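Lab notebook, bench 4. We co-purified these components, and the gel suggests they stay together. Before we commit to crystallization screens, I want a quick structural picture of the whole thing.
Request: model the full complex, all chains together.
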Amino acid sequence: MRKDSFTLFLVFPSIILSIILFFPVINLLATTSATQYIEAFLDTEVRLAIFLSLFTATLTTILAVILGVPFAYILARKNFPFKSIVDSLVDLPILIPHTVAGIALLTLFGPRALIGSMLKNFGLIFTGTIYGIVLAQFFVSAPLLIKTTKEVLLKIDERFIKAARTLGASPRNIFLDIELPLSARGILTGAILCWARAISEFGAVIILAYYPYTAPVLIYIRFETWGLSASKSISALLLLVTLSIFILLKCIEKKR
Amino acid sequence: MLEIIGLTKKVPGFSLKNITFSVTNEYFVILGPSGAGKTMLLESIAGLRKIDSGRIILNNRDITNLPPEKRNIGFVFQEYALFPHMKVHENIAYGLKVRGVNREERKRKVAEIAKLLEITNTLDKYPNELSGGEKQRVALARALILNPQALLLDEPLSALDAPLRKELRVELRRIHRQFNIPTIHVTHDQIEAFSLADRIGVMNNGELLEIGTPNEIFNSPKTLFVAKFIGFENIFHGKVVEASNGISKIKVDNQIIYAAGEYKGDVIVALRPENIIIMLNKASTSARNVLEGKILDIIDETHVVRILVNTGITFKVIITKNALYKMGLKPGQRVYIAFKASSVKIF
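Here is the predicted assembly.
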């Protein structure tokens, strides 16, 4: 009897949680008919928006890996003044409201702002451009990659590194031959998280680049102008595409 | 020859204190409990840690301030630290590769050392496919392929189970004979130390307490810590009441114990449990010390039994199982214990 009530105590909240977390997604996919998927897909604007989202998120992720892995390495391996502050600052973009993130970015990278005005001379304009989309996505998603990478680097057995040193490896050798291969899987996990987060970003993106439409922005616009049923099929399609890619990436990650 | 002179290293809460010793082309074992600073000492010698003061000399070359890769010292880590993502041959060749040795030469040298260590059939495997013994040999091969001038082994046998450990002790001696370089092997295991070492250094709490041949350390430890650590389990505080003719008469509680040597004042008496014999009667014995007591407890320890005998003070005695059955000893029984004055160590 006691055991049963305990089971109930565990199961009941889990059912409610599942209804809130999983059911909406499944419901969205399931209640959209094949014709609706096809209709959405045949809509050029929708196709362009989904492609733009996938493209910018991929660009963001590549950029995050290039800039984030060295940064994560420094956080994991080096000591410097105010390290703990820098360490917690990495979390900040994840914590703040994304509209705030957008405003903050605009304040620095806007066409008349400090950095934005300088970069404008090189043709880098962050408002209403792909650059703006990538910047906004990068701001909110790169921290996920940095954190994951830092964690896997810290988890590498110090003895591997010491062993490599006694065998004559330079820090560069150790990074390329030992640390990078041993953390590759973790970096991949981080990249997948980063990519998924970049695709889903709406708040920061819409403030920097209302146009060209990424999929989340287009969905919002269709919802605002034509209502729920018009935005639902696009939502389902975006969900289907990203979910498929996400599962595919996860499979690759598992295989390694 | 590897010489360590006045090596000192402080980290928060611990320090290596003024460690000095030298190792010729011998097998030198550093024995000490965990937390003694053994690994830190090895890592300092290898250059993986900067030292605060002192000097490290290898074959007349001062290597104190050289980075690890310039020291030419081989290091075998605890649990071997083989790179899990590289095959055995890549592991072994790694040191050559970072030194820019070409592929042909690497292949030739790997084959050569693999043959020597009898691991040729493992070369295409990954470390996680190897047995404990194979891993050890691969770790040795990886270090030895660079022709180091000294070899450091950090608890090389602790990752293995007992029967294999015994086998690989022999193996380590063989490899040492073959390469004939100063070798420092760090362990907390006395059996390992006594069966492998040409000389032993006993370490505790960041200090190298004594250095000697296994015989010297085993029979005449110079410090109480070493005595306790290598099995002098009967330790009593006493006072010398008389000393003459090379014998001291020592009062421990209300008991008298005779020890070889003339001492005075307060002393600590130490005695190995296996140096005490148990007798049913007060038979004639050449042993100077004969005490009557009662058996408190008999503790089984597979090959032997440990018997606690209270004579007013409690002695730990180790006898064979055979002797136990022959004498039919039981807890509560009254017996005599006897030990030689020369078995008693005084500190």
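Residues 8 and 14 of chain A are 10 Å apart (CA to CA). Worth comparing against the SEC data before the next meeting. The interface with chain B takes residues 157, 159-160, 162-170, 173, 177-178, 181-182 of chain A (CB under 8 Å).
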